[in-house]
Design brief:
Blueprint (H helix, E strand, L loop, with lengths): L4 E3 L1 H14 L4 H16 L8 H11 L10 E4 L4 E5 L5 H19 L1 E10 L5 H8 L4 E5 L21 E5 L7 E5 L6 H10 L8 E2 L5 E2 L2 H6 L1 E2 L5 H16 L6 H8 L7 E9 L1 H5 L5 H14 L7 H13 L1 E3 L1 H13 L6
Parallel strand pairs: 3-4
Antiparallel strand pairs: 1-12, 2-3, 4-11, 5-6, 5-11, 6-7, 8-9, 8-10
Helix pairs in contact: 1-2, 1-13, 2-4
Protein name: Ldh family oxidoreductase
Keywords: Oxidoreductase
Organism: Paracoccus suum
């Protein structure tokens, strides 16, 4: 009988990578995807951990994602770096564009990485943390597929449309936040459905536009934006900047193209990188100035965003990642049967 297991981060990463290779993803695609999923488990972000594997593989099983995609830099003039993901998942395209994005941000002060034609499942904090580690401030955003009603509406039109920000800190972990513009990530609703637990009130409406705490009714209906009209406005901004402006799909078009929400969404992504020193122009040390705010927040006993994830990461790095018996069984089934294990 399968039992819970505790795995080191490298061991879990290798297990995930082998699953994707078993499902006919290229070695490069699998090697880029696996650490991102493992990072979700490492940081106790279950909605972006091993739960995501099946949806990624289903994208291949229904013939949508390109498992052997080789991303290509198709524009790197000026401050805009554009990478065509060629219908593959976004992590490999991000890895290709990252060095150019960092170099352009340092030489020009501000640069943008546009990723087109990608499938996307990953948390954006993974990307902004990478840029903060280079001493850069960063923003990342992307649409999704239409599962969220605009404020005052009752039917899906917007995506969960995540937005992330990272700021480097000289003597510690970067300041990072990453949130869906819906009340919660869609993965959180699915986890409630699997667990048979009700949703908090205010998360969703059913297919008739009535408030619901039933996860299945929410999945059949629409999620709501956080903060009412404020979240709705930010979600719309992301549709415009990371959809229309970069020449890629908006959330309605992504759902129309896929025909289902049971797979990873397909669209584009926009990542912005800023060099704080270039923007400050020598007037003052921007990182030191930022610490007045950030240390002030901590000094009041308030928790900075990502504090919970950071604490979980310390434990995972020291003690490993514990997966439930059901999660281990699922990984073993996928490793053994490949796409045949995906409904």
């Amino acid at each position: 009988m399968t039992a819970p297991q505790t795995l080191t981060i490298p061991a879990l990463t290798a297990k995930i990578e082998a699953i994707f290779q078993r499902a006919r993803f290229s070695a490069a695609q699998a090697a880029a995807i696996a650490p991102v999923i493992a990072a979700g488990e490492r940081d106790a972000c279950k909605s972006h951990g091993v739960y995501r594997i099946e949806g990624c593989l289903r994208s291949l099983k229904i013939g949508k994602v390109n498992p052997g995609a080789v991303p290509e830099v198709i524009a790197s003039e000026g401050s805009i770096v554009r990478v065509d993901a060629k219908g593959g998942f976004s992590p490999l395209a991000f890895e290709l564009g990252l060095p150019l994005l960092v170099e352009r941000a340092r030489t020009q002060g501000l640069a943008a990485l546009v990723i087109n034609d990608c499938f996307h499942f990953s948390a954006l904090w993974v990307e902004v943390e990478r840029l903060a580690a280079e001493g850069l401030a960063a923003m990342a955003m992307c649409p999704s597929y239409a599962t969220v009603a605009p404020h005052g509406g009752s039917a899906p039109l917007l995506g969960t449309n995540p937005f992330a920000f990272g700021w480097p800190r000289p003597d510690g972990a970067p300041y990072v936040f990453d949130f869906a513009t819906s009340v919660a990530a869609r993965g959180e609703v699915e986890l409630h459905r699997r667990a048979g637990t009700p949703l908090p009130e205010g998360w969703a409406v059913d297919a008739e536009g009535q408030p619901t705490t039933d996860p299945q009714a929410a999945l059949d209906g629409a999620m709501l934006t956080f903060g009412g009209h404020k979240g709705s406005a930010i979600a719309t901004m992301i549709e415009l900047l990371a959809g229309a402006m970069i020449g890629d799909l908006n959330s309605v078009e992504a759902l129309d193209w896929l025909g289902t929400t049971a797979v990873a969404p397909k669209h584009g992504e926009l990542i912005l990188a800023f060099d704080p020193a270039r923007f400050a122009g020598g007037r003052r040390d921007p990182l030191a100035a930022a610490e007045l705010i950030l240390s002030g927040i901590e000094g009041q006993g308030a928790r900075l965003p990502s504090g919970r994830r950071r604490a979980a990461r310390v434990i995972s790095e020291a003690e490993g990642i514990t997966l439930s018996a059901a999660e281990i069984e699922g990984l073993e089934r996928l490793a053994r049967d490949g796409l045949a294990a995906v409904p």
